[in-house]
Amino acid sequence: MNKPDAIAADATENVVHWQRFSVPYEYPVIFSRDIFSPFSSVLSDVLARAEPAKTHRCLVFIDGGLLTAAPSFADRVRQWFNANAPHVELAVEPITILGGEAIKQDPAHFEEVQSAIHRHGIDRHSYVIAIGGGAVLDAVGLGAAVAHRGVRHVRVPTTVLSQNDSGVGVKNAVNLKGIKNFTGTFAPPWAVINDSDFLSSLPRRERISGIAEAVKVALIRDRKFFEWLEENVGRLAEFEREAEEHMVRRCAQLHMDQIANGGDPFERGSARPLDFGHWVAHKLEILSEHEVNHGEAVAIGIALDVRYSVLAGFLRAGAEKRVAAVLKQLGLRLFHPALLKPGPDGRPALLAGLDEFRQHLGGELTVTLLEDLGRGIEVHEIKEDLVLDALRWLEGQEGAQ
Ligand SMILES: NC(=O)c1ccc[n+]([C@@H]2O[C@H](COP(=O)([O-])OP(=O)(O)OC[C@H]3O[C@@H](n4cnc5c(N)ncnc54)[C@H](O)[C@@H]3O)[C@@H](O)[C@H]2O)c1
Ligand SMILES: [Zn+2]
What we know:
Layout: E1 7-9, E2 15-17, E3 29-32, H1 42-47, E4 56-63, H2 64-69, H3 73-83, E5 88-90, E6 95-97, H4 102-105, H5 107-119, E7 127-132, H6 134-146, E8 152-157, H7 160-164, E9 171-176, E10 179-186, E11 191-195, H8 204-209, H9 211-221, H10 223-237, H11 241-261, H12 278-287, H13 294-311, H14 319-329, H15 352-361, E12 367-372, E13 375-379, H16 384-397
Parallel strand pairs: 3-11, 4-5, 4-6, 4-7, 7-8, 8-11
Antiparallel strand pairs: 1-2, 9-10, 12-13
The site of zinc ion has 5 residues, from helix 13.
């Protein structure tokens, strides 16, 4: 079939009309503070982008975990809408929705989002605003993406991981049939607003583990950023505000750059270049029965893949020690006993993670390793004996300074 021709007749006289068009996507990712101060116009400017003169109706969902940590926050949202009327309007009182992975596990919560969109008359010119962690953004984002085939969705991420990684992208999903992110879409949001004030109510564990994604993207894309992380690791571990904001912003920018300029925003190929360390991470989360959270698992995955890169001869020896030092200074562990949990054949079940990683995208196995600090390299084969060597090295790092 001759693809470039608009119309082609092949030998069997079939007539093929190639349909072809492209749709440009653009959305702002804003970094700000205290966006629900009555005087802040960050959100109202975002809502007014397309139709400045009208009243913008909004359906607001708030992560229940955030409200437990900051109970007065729902009042602040109400007050902001009152202060900014008549340009903005709440379709109904802000809706509290279950936070954390549980929202993605039970289809009832997705249904709750759809029902609210229906009941409160949200159309394609109104807004669904999700304020919460990556799980809430994923579940509400899916509801917004499929209701009326897509209503405008504003994301307000409230965890480190959702501000520096998951929230700035184009995907959403819930889990189905025991498979993570089985049901989802690619749906670029109307806008993303990262407000660093939200981070102060996060438990230390959540706030630290999200930094692993910054170490990850620095290692594969930006040596200078890695060196900055090395120099500022103490400030980051103390949650010094400017350092934390810089870490979030640079990490988010590098993720945005991959989506816009990596050539595959909707992941149709076999590679996910930013998933460095993630073949281990995804498997470890399951093997540890989610005792290890995503960021913590990514830290271990990074450490293993950096050591593997050295053992396989891609990366100069010594680099892995620098990476391990940064992760340890953040208080992240480099080993977990579940890494050695035996599978049905007696060997570590972790090794099956490689095939599962390949299956998720389909096609050939593609794993990102390092050829230098700041420079990733894609490989299509991982040697099991070297993985086992790397695992022993990680185990030896426990307790070692
Ligand atoms: N769509 C994507 O591209 C993408 C990419 C990576 C990860 N994800 C998804 O993101 C999810 C993980 O997101 P996460 O790391 O943000 O965790 P999370 O959403 O599970 O939130 C962690 C916990 O923090 C609570 N919380 C949220 N904000 C808070 C705040 N400011 N103060 C106090 N508590 C708060 C939540 O209620 C929850 O209990 C996973 O489901 C993952 O699959 C999506
Ligand atoms: Zn990740």
